[in-house]
Amino acid sequence: ETGVTQTPRHLVMGMTNKKSLKCEQHLGHNAMYWYKQSAKKPLELMFVYSLEERVENNSVPSRFSPECPNSSHLFLHLHTLQPEDSALYLCASSQGVDVFYEQYFGPGTRLTVT
Amino acid sequence: GESVGLHLPTLSVQEGDNSIINCAYSNSASDYFIWYKQESGKGPQFIIDIRSNMDKRQGQRVTVLLNKTVKHLSLQIAATQPGDSAVYFCAETYTGGGNKLTFGTGTQLKVEL
Description:
The structure holds 2 protein chains of 2 kinds. By secondary structure, chain A is mainly beta. Chain A has no helices and 11 strands. In chain A, a hairpin with a 2-residue loop joins strand 7 and strand 8 (73-79). The A-B interface holds A 4, 31, 33, 40-43, 45, 48, 55-56, 90, 92, 94, 97-108 and B 4, 32, 41-46, 89, 91, 93-95, 97-106.
């Protein structure tokens, strides 16, 4: 595997379910990100991790819980979501947390909350 | 609040023609801009970037123009090919902003054969 991978690619869950999204980067990067991409809206940054420490939390509801066990893996734990949380969730990584490091994106997980 | 937006939601061009995708930004402190390409079913992919000390930068078949006076950014694609069909969006940030990018909503580029 190369680049940034995300699983699952598609997920349908009920509002009372608990699920997790997984991201893995094979680039040796130190920073990882979660973004939300809703239809006809700009990408929204959710969380940023640098060397497994959370450095950014953009006022995201507590029903989204990130976890970064090591610099290669990032999880997004989901519980009691709302239908408006349906979106494409993108993971990205970069060499470091600095504006000039290029971010590499995974293909995303298409989440539908019913 | 500050925003980054695109002038046209959809752009259709003939194969072989040049494409121009525009972007307006409102944060006067922004000094670094990026264009991304997002194909269907894929994540965004970096195309080209430009810093505010430049007004033009060229890559392979792509050129980015920056007009700081009117806070306008454009992406020009030469000899557009079917493989260029995608959503293109700009992003901006500023020195000291960490790695927080503000993204535009995107323009769908459709290449007609």
